[in-house]
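cron nightly-structures :: item 1 of 1
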Amino acid sequence: MSDANYLQLTEVELREYVKLHPQDEEAFQHYLSIVRAKPNRVVVSTGEQLETELKKRLAS
């Protein structure tokens, strides 16, 4: 898929495309750039971090 086609897909469509075409590294990187640009994004790498973050959000 060319870069021009990526721009025409919605985030949901692009996510589905990436799921169906895991070998398409360019599409995956484009999807990551969209996800990373979202405000309030939280990255966790352990179950404990996830649990802590969920508790913070539920307490708000």
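cron nightly-structures :: done
The first helix runs from residue 3 to 8.
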